[in-house]
Amino acid sequence: MKKILEVSNLDVKLKERTLISRLSFEINSGTLTCITGENGVGKTTMVKTLLKNFKNNNHVNFHIKRNQVQYVPQLRNIDDDYPLMIKDFIGLGLQNKLLPWLSKKEKLSIEQVMNETNLAHLARTPLGKASGGEQQRVFLAQALVSNPKLLILDESTASMDKDAKIELLKLVKNITEKTDTAVIFITHDPLLVQKFGDYDLEIKNQEGILKSVKGVNN
Amino acid sequence: MLSYPFMQYAFIASFFISLLCGLMGVFVVARKTAFFTHTLSEISFSGASFGVFLGTSPILGMLIFTILSSFMVGSVGSRLSRRESSISVFSVFFIGLGVLFLALADGQSSYATNILFGSIVGISFSNIVVLVSLSIAILVVTTLIYRKLKYNSFDSVGASFNSRSNTIVSIIFLVLLACTVSVTAQIVGSLLIFALLTIPASSAKYFAHTIAGMTFLSFMFSLIGTWVGLYLSYVTNLPVSFFIAAIETIIYLIAVLWDKFFVN
């Protein structure tokens, strides 16, 4: 287990208003940390603050490079007539090379990630024609294709039904355990925290408390 | 028909204009900046009349105006430039400015219609040289920033979190677009260039689902429109702009109907 991120005494602010004060926690590789709390306590703002202070802050200390972090945003607003096929949308996540075309190795990693996220049969479907749950898997696949060390999921399950949520989290858990990736999962759903979380960072009354979710996994 | 040099030039120029519009159009449509492109063509009109006012060439004024506004929009952020109200304000202001410069320059009004509607049959050899060089330059730059440009254009939300070169990529793209509009507007007019940059690419996305496929199809749609338009205009002696606009509109309608009845 390696340290991915250390946060110490960080104040999270939105404009001038302090949302969370003196926040401290650690993220280690291969673990899934849920961030929970009511609407508007500053979960998303906190994650954005972390990314904004990637380099120049003594309160936030990342042990990985910026391009090893993948953030899966909450909303993407894909129109019905969004044209790009799923395979190519996933390929957009490959940003570490300058070549305009994808190398053989990169094509293979797209194929592999599509197999892992059960998207192989939809490879040539335009993203706009995929269902909501399928689109969430595509967003996950796009984030995973560059082999991140830290994956941040912002309420990725908010619009899904119960079975689909569990299915998605199972995928996340499987893949990240294999690759020793750390996951930060912003969620509202206590069931998912109990079932899949290793740690729960609960934000309440401008404070964040990190707890271990015990006796659930294994 | 092809024995006249001006018709030969018109067909060659249309080929390269279609190439540029195919490539840039796919990104214009993906970035949802069609209306800014429209504004850009109005800005190029006012730039051209500024050039006439200064007594230099119109293309210089066009390039200065469009590139400056691209820098402005690229750095302020696309959110502002997509707002309906700011687009109308921009359009009106620049059209007004263009009219003012033309009046001050004491130029003939035929100049204004030339810039707005172009003169595809009045192309010289030097126009072709400029077009070919611009096409090469745009192809090279697009190749260099291709991965970042496609991420930023086809997944702007994802790229805003996971890519750090969004502002610079947006500015480069808008400058390329500004050059495309300025150079091609002289030939097909600033009104028609808007049509060629948006309609073929909007139609192509219903048939092709890769960037290469969409680029090729929008190139073909532009080429069909301009070549058939030139031919019909030659035969009927009616304005070529009308035929191009009509053909592109028909292609778009076919695309939408095809999507409605055969895909779903």
In brief:
The complex is a heterodimer of chains A (218) and B (264). Chain A is α/β, with parallel strands linked by helices. In chain A, 31% of the residues lie in helices and 27% in strands.
Please tell me about this protein's structure.
The complex is a heterodimer of chains A (218) and B (264). With 218 residues, chain A is of the alpha/beta class. Helix content of chain A is 31%, strand content 27%. Chain A has a six-stranded mixed β-sheet with strand order 5-6-7-3-8-9, sandwiched between helices. Chain A has a three-stranded antiparallel β-sheet with strand order 2-1-4, with helices on one face. In chain A, β1 and β2 (17-28) form a beta hairpin. In chain A, α3 (104-116) crosses α4 (132-144) and α4 (132-144) runs parallel beside α5 (162-179). The longest helix of chain A has 18 residues, at 162-179. Chain A is globular and about 45 Å long. By secondary structure, chain B is an all-alpha fold. Chain B is 86% helix and 0% strand. Chain B has helices spanning 5-30, 34-54, 58-76, 78-82, 84-105, 109-117, 125-144, 146-154, 156-162, 166-188, 190-204, 211-236, 240-263. The termini of chain B are far apart. The mean pLDDT of chain B is 87. Chains A and B meet through β5 and α4 of A and α8 and α9 of B.
